[in-house]
């Protein structure tokens, strides 16, 4: 069957609606972290396996006392537990129980006062990064999560550490965090 131009142009919007429907309603890969299921989606990063013995979280930039923290050191730090909503660009959202260290606490440990922060870049081992404002860093809900649902993060959810940024879309929740770089005023 040969389509003429008019038939093609008539079918084009239908094809666009079908493609959009498939994208919007397609199943996402289910994942369970600590018995707590929520979808896994990718924002330019792909699942990255990190050896826990080799992992380091670097806190650098305009800090008086740069840090190079091992995973066991992060787990030994005081943490907070909060159920926070993640909103995905794909149309889903979920209230998820996170556990981690507020970014402000990590920066204070590196010797940087909250009043001196201009912005902070959060970088993944993959090179993916996002920048937070000083107001976001001061918010105790913004954390480097180590656990979800009471268990360590899975690789799909950013093991060993991921940014939790509740006022931002899921695209900004950087997985596989290895560096926090602060810029002061």
Question: Can you list the strand order of the major beta sheet?
Answer: 4-3-12-7-8
Total domain units: 1
CATH superfamily: Oxidoreductase, molybdopterin-binding domain
CATH architecture: Alpha-Beta Complex
Radius of gyration: 20 Å
Low-confidence blocks of residues: 19-35
Kindly name the structural category: alpha+beta
The number of distinct helices, counting runs of at least 4 residues, comes to 4
What CATH first level would be assigned? Alpha Beta
Order of helices and strands: HEEEEHEEHEEHEEEE
Summarize the main sheet: 5 strands, mixed
Average pLDDT, all residues: 83
Share of helix, binned:
10-25%
Shape: elongated
Strand content: 25-35%
User: The CATH topology is what?
Assistant: Sulfite Oxidase, Chain A, domain 2
Terminus-to-terminus distance: 67 Å
Number of strands: 12
Describe, in plain words, how this protein is organized in 3D.
- The protein has 185 residues and is an alpha+beta fold.
- It has a single domain, classed as Oxidoreductase, molybdopterin-binding domain (Sulfite Oxidase, Chain A, domain 2).
- 21% of the residues lie in helices and 35% in strands.
- It has four helices and twelve strands.
- It has helices at 5-25, 71-76, 103-109, 134-138; strands at 32-33, 36-37, 56-61, 67-70, 80-87, 93-102, 117-124, 129-133, 143-148, 151-152, 162-164, 177-184.
- The strands form three sheets. A five-stranded mixed β-sheet has the order 4-3-12-7-8.
- Residues 19-35 have low confidence and may be disordered.
